[in-house]
Amino acid sequence: MDLNFFQVTLLALIQGITEFLPVSSSAHLILPSLLLDWPDQGLTFDVAVHLGSLFAVLAYFRHDILQLLVAWLKNLTQRQTSEDSRLAWLIIIATVPGALAGLFANDLVENYARSGYVIGSTSTLFALLLWYADKRVDPGRSLSELTWRQALFVGFAQALALIPGTSRSGITMTAALFCGLTRQAAAKLSFFLAIPIIFGSFTLRGTELVNVGALGEYLLPLAYGVFVSGLVAFACIHYFMQLIERIGFLPFVIYRIGLAVVLFSITFMA
């Protein structure tokens, strides 16, 4: 990871802005290396700035998360069942496919799936799928109406987000919309699902860095990247939750297709 202060700042800003929007943060993080001939920052940096996003979602939904955690613990220890404990279990169920995919396909993605062609293709494909889900499905269900089958469906969709350009938030919101959830509920579920996935990814990569003795070398720029991305991600969550019911997903669909065209053009001319 050979990045200077300006490069770390710009990439952290990009991550913070794009992580929770359905536009694919990985598609944006590869742009500087293509446009400015920067070295690819690698999956280690990507995972680190995702930790900033994790802090942001924990801070923004702190009351909801605390309720879910308390209800889940009561269900485990005292067999008390509630809507919150049920939702907590559904989030765990939905996390399993993505966790397994990340564990077994992590190296494959880092070595072979970070090209402009791959990211442009997945950005276009899943943007159109998001448009279809938002346009054709009649939403109206709240998170309390989510079933375990639907949670598992969203979980398998999240596993696809390991492919750069898919957009983890985009594909989980798409799947949630197909399950009939409202836009607000789909977005909220996507944010909740980000917590264990990002934490697991960071733990896995951080353990690898510690084992090879490289954590100290990268600690300062990574910590700075975490701070910047977290601050920006918090603001993005706030405004996205306020706007999503009014603007829908079409602006993000159009933007992703335009981004894909840019990626294809740059990669072809490189």
TrEMBL record:
GO molecular function: undecaprenyl-diphosphatase activity
Keywords linked to the UniProt accession: Antibiotic resistance, Cell membrane, Cell shape, Cell wall biogenesis/degradation, Hydrolase, Membrane, Peptidoglycan synthesis, Transmembrane, Transmembrane helix
Main location: membrane
Catalytic activity: di-trans,octa-cis-undecaprenyl diphosphate + H2O = di-trans,octa-cis-undecaprenyl phosphate + phosphate + H(+)
GO biological process, one term: response to antibiotic
Pfam family, one: BacA
Top-level EC class as recorded in UniProt: hydrolase
Record carries keyword 4Fe-4S: no
Cellular component terms per the entry's GO annotation: plasma membrane
Compartments reported by the entry: Cell membrane
Signal peptide residues on this chain, from the entry's feature table: none
Membrane association type: Multi-pass membrane protein
InterPro entries found in the cross-reference section: UppP
Spans traversing the lipid bilayer: 87-105, 117-134, 185-206, 218-241, 247-269
The protein's Enzyme Commission number: 3.6.1.27
Listed NCBIfam families: PRK00281.2-4, undec_PP_bacA
Described function: Catalyzes the dephosphorylation of undecaprenyl diphosphate (UPP). Confers resistance to bacitracin.
Other remarks in the entry: Bacitracin is thought to be involved in the inhibition of peptidoglycan synthesis by sequestering undecaprenyl diphosphate, thereby reducing the pool of lipid carrier available.
Xref: PANTHER family: UNDECAPRENYL-DIPHOSPHATASE (PTHR30622:SF4)
Similarity-based family: Belongs to the UppP family.
Protein name, entry field: Undecaprenyl-diphosphatase
UniProt organism field: OM182 bacterium MED-G28
